């Protein structure tokens, strides 16, 4: 009859932890002889038991003096691994939550949800790290930590790659650049430790990680590239003169004007600037013979300020006089899909007006609402360049004229762009009778200069465009409809 010891202390694992069993049951794990004595005390062994007595304890892979654990190194690794995973959780939440909670499109919201879920996995991995560098009671704790580190490496690599495209200063760089270095270190540590050994089917685990990464990549590509371009953007404008009426008390004719706009595209749009201008067109009429004479008259007219390119055989010295000009809808407002807006205006012209025709020009600048979120509360309030108390906006009229300035922060609906770029702003300037201007750039002050290349790139990025409509009517027709 053989005598078996009550307790078996197994050989140290890669970290120096030794598993303690009694019979077929694992009763604990020990880093040191002190840990072993605590386990034995729970098994009702005396405190002064001889650890080298083979009647009670059997040692495998070393004796009672074999304790290769390096507690400070292990605890430092645990602290760095846990801190990195928790920081990655915070970064994933900062990137994903704005899209998950407020993105306009379903695809962009799903991208935000993926980042939030990735953060939750990293939080679970931080908890698993405590077990993996501890007693390892959960067999898959190492695999969970590896999954969290791989997610962090993929996220930080994506952010770093996007930042390298333009390398603009952003406070998030101080977060994802150190985390990228940490994730590379953490991956090396886990691979060297063969952390996936506790997984029952490591091949399936690896396949699941690859599939998850592919789905995430496809979702990001769809939300950032295909989906924003798939929805068409189109705005229709219409301007129409009404029936004129004479003024009995004054030598004027009142002319109704109807201005109409409608979002006929597939996405909502912000109005960043708009204007309508009514001009009276005058000319000196003469008989011109031959194309060369016509071109000579056109050059003469263009030299006097007619730079619009009109060429008329019998009209010379074309002039345009601004009669009325104002906003149509107003900067900072938006049109939902299918929404339309109509405004009725009335302007006056003298009965003996020296105009041959009256023309209206209507122009609207707009941007896609699914690309960015404009701070409309800030943008819709105009600033006056001629007011000296408008700090940051005052400009002498000799240099800037007299303009209204609209400005506000715009955030891209894909928050990956927001965290890897400097803030972007929409600026619009307006003055009656002039060409309205709207731009998107990184400038925080409107009176600074920026390259045309940057403005064009940002206008394309946020899907900005403009549309124009014109209508013209003879003054003789207006006077006839007024009974004159």
TrEMBL record:
Organism domain of life: Bacteria
Membrane keyword on record: yes
TM segment ranges: 78-98, 110-130, 142-164, 170-192, 204-225
Keywords in alphabetical order: Membrane, Transmembrane, Transmembrane helix
Protein name as annotated: DUF4395 domain-containing protein
